[in-house]
Amino acid sequence: MSAIYRGMNQSKLDAQYDQRTLVPHAGEYMARWAERSASIIAAKGPETLRYGEGPNEIMLVFGDGPSAGAGAHLHLHGGAWRQLSAGQTAFVASGLLGAGVPVAVADFSLAPAAALGAIVEEVRRAFLCLAERFGSVGVSAHSSGCHLAGMLLDPAWQESAGVKGALRGLVLASGVYDLEPVRLSARNTYLSLSEEEAAALSPHLHLPKGPPPATLLWGDGELDEFQRQSRAFAAALRAAGGEARELVLPGLNHFDVYDSFAEPGSEVVAAVRALHSPTAAAG
Questions:
Q1: Are the C-beta atoms of 119 and 76 separated by less than 8 Å?
Q2: Do residues 133 and 51 lie in contact, with contact meaning Cβ atoms separated by under 8 Å?
Q3: Which helix (H) or strand (E) holds 270?
Q4: pLDDT value at position 70?
């Protein structure tokens, strides 16, 4: 088979964008996340906040009003754009609430029922809703959620939406930011991206000058392509004049990294807490 991307043939590229290549028991993690999420929802009784008219346009908001000048926090789940929900990933609030601000875990539509561009617009509406309510918003995400978070940086959208300066910063774990290899992989059987759409929806091609601070994290047990994508996006942010810190988490695979969002003492939560310190300004 001939090479189609960075020296990889089709089967190797497909494997690089299939987490079960390295973690065949991924379903066990997801089942545990759902159980933990049900427990924290029952214990905390989050507000259900609607941010749009679509059936999936809701957020679960944990916590009370923010500390002065600290804003609120938006979390975007992963799931390869076609799995998971706020109800299955709300467990992250048990760690993220340590930042001392309200935490909104967003729901949004999934592929293939919704086109990726439409999902991006939903996430942008969620961000706008929180920005209008709390003034500024920090954002964290995992896996494909990092792609959606990255699209909040698009300067053309920020300008048209009137939210320039409302994004405090990003904490992105194990993400994807360049959709061209995704388009060429088996994932495109449900994303159906054209070459033009992949470019229009790739965050690394749509960065503002002086982007807000970002921390990019990944485990050393991740697929090579996910590690490369994180390093490349951090470099692109720095080239645009931003502060982008890279943090490799030893001994963790893609799904272990997501577990760390629920651990108050983890490096992921420390990075989120830094976004919301009273002295941290929105970017």
A1: no
A2: no
A3: helix 267-275
A4: 80
